[in-house]
Amino acid sequence: MDKKLKMGVGIGGPSIIMIFVALCLTTLGALSLMTANADWKLTQKAADALTEYYAADNEVEEILASVDADLKAGHPLENDSFVIPISDRQNLAVELKSEGTRYTVLSRKIMPASQWDYDQFKTEFDDSITE
């Protein structure tokens, strides 16, 4: 009865746990990187849109300054509305009202550059029930 008692170091369980933790942290890091990249792209799009809007708004203010100078010089208002392109998809539309030597901005709004063509996607559905 020579039984030797072997006490080995049990590294199987802790190794599996460490591998699982490393995989979880790697996955979390990859997801964080993807989210940060998506947020960066969205921020760039928003910054570009804002820059385009303010460039168009600046052009509107220059036109309004020239309209103001023309009205003060006694010239009548030629156009009571104008449209400035913001981007290829949006325009800034401004409508004015002349009151002697002054003007009032009636509306200043962002409009789509093109209208949706509903007829292009017009489909007819057959609602009849077939047995």
Compose a concise summary of this entry:
This protein is of the alpha+beta class. The protein has one domain (20-114).
Characterization of this structure:
With 131 residues, the chain is α+β, with helices and mostly antiparallel strands. It contains one helix and three strands. The chain has one domain (20-114). Strand 2 (90-99) and strand 3 (102-112) form a beta hairpin. The longest helix has 61 residues, at 12-72. It is elongated and about 120 Å long. The termini are far apart.
What are the salient characteristics of this protein?
1 helix; alpha+beta; 131 residues; 3 strands; elongated; three-stranded antiparallel sheet
H/E element string? HEEE
- What composes the largest sheet? 3 strands, antiparallel
Shape: elongated
Structural class call reads alpha+beta
Number of helices: 1
Strand order of the largest sheet: 1-2-3
Q: How many angstroms separate the termini?
A: 84 Å
Percent of residues in helices: 40-55%
Radius of gyration: 34 Å
Low-confidence stretches: none
Report the portion of residues in β strands. Answer: 15-25%
Please give the number of β-strands. 3
Average pLDDT value? 88
Number of domains: 1
Based on the structure, what is the oligomeric state of the protein chains? single chain
Transmembrane segments: 15-36
Keywords: Membrane, Transmembrane, Transmembrane helix
